[in-house]
TrEMBL record:
The keyword Signal applies. SMART domains: PBPb (SM00062), PBPe (SM00079). Residues 32-248 form the Solute-binding protein family 3/N-terminal domain. GO terms for cellular component: cell envelope; membrane. This is Polar amino acid transport system substrate-binding protein. It holds the Pfam family SBP_bac_3. Keywords: Signal. Belongs to the bacterial solute-binding protein 3 family. GO terms for molecular function: ligand-gated monoatomic ion channel activity. It comes from Deinococcus budaensis.
Length: 252
């Protein structure tokens, strides 16, 4: 019995994990593209009940449609996404990854699908500038560019990491930290939702956000870039961006 259970487990994992990244031709032939995201990073990728939604989810669904593909979504903790990509668990990742040299060593990035930055949010009277973060406790999501950049702030106090960005925000609201650093658009939504209980401060850094494919998967990358360019030309990207942000968030 146990042996059999073990065997079928092995068989399952073999089925679930192909040995190599699927090329564009293979994906096209299968008719379905496998896309991974976190599903906990509003307004970019989030779960509403069981429904995966957000700017990036809608955008990727649109790109897949343009490419004539069905989508199979996979959700993973943010910190696992690029690891799973390199294990060929899915074809690409769209989860607000900022392009940085460290990540670019591990994966290949598409052209950016939006531009943004990391900003400080604190309660009124709390630290709202980089200088004011001196000696202060700051909450950030683990594995993010926020962590990397907050650590660079001279004299910054305790930097606390959370598995989910929403947990880092909750720590600020509960007063367990003095500030939260996260995406500037997420910050705008947080300030609105909290109706004056928090304020947005300085932008600490800017970043270009892109989709990631397994290193070397140039055939898929080419199709994704072409689909993105088309969406940005035919107005569908602009419409989606207006819907989520009231502005066009493409990189200029
Ligand atoms: N833009 C930041 C980064 O590149 C945060 C991304 C977080 N994404 C998410 N799905 N939680 O690290």
């Amino acid at each position: 019995m146990i042996k059999r259970a073990l065997l079928s487990l092995t068989a399952l994992s073999l089925l679930a994990v192909p040995a190599q990244a699927r090329t564009w031709a293979e994906i096209k032939q299968s008719g379905t593209v496998r896309i991974a995201t976190e599903g906990a990073f509003p307004p970019f990728n989030l779960l509403k009940g069981k429904q995966l939604t957000g700017f990036e989810v809608d955008l990727a669904n649109q790109l897949a449609k343009q490419l004539g593909l069905k989508v199979q979504w996979v959700t993973q903790p943010f910190d696992n996404l690029l690891i799973g990509l390199n294990q060929d668990r899915y074809d690409f990742v769209i989860a607000s990854h900022g392009i940085n040299p460290e990540r670019a060593k591990a994966v290949d990035f598409s052209n950016p699908h939006y531009c943004t930055g990391g900003a400080i949010v604190a309660k009124p009277g709390g630290p709202l500038t980089a200088a004011a973060l001196k000696g202060k406790r700051v909450a950030v999501q683990v594995g993010t560019t926020y962590l990397e950049n907050v650590r660079k702030v001279p004299g910054v106090g305790d930097v606390k990491t959370f598995p989910k960005d929403t947990d880092a925000q909750a720590a600020l609201m509960a007063g367990r930290v003095d500030a939260w650093v996260g995406d500037k658009f997420t910050g705008i939504d947080l300030v609105k939702a909290q109706q004056g209980k928090v304020k947005q401060g300085d932008l600490l850094f800017n970043e270009r956000i892109a989709m990631a494919v397994k290193k070397g998967n140039s055939s898929l990358l080419k199709e994704l870039n072409a689909a993105l360019a088309k969406a940005q030309q035919n107005g569908s990207y602009a419409k989606l961006s207006q819907q989520y942000f009231g502005q066009d968030v493409r990189c200029k």
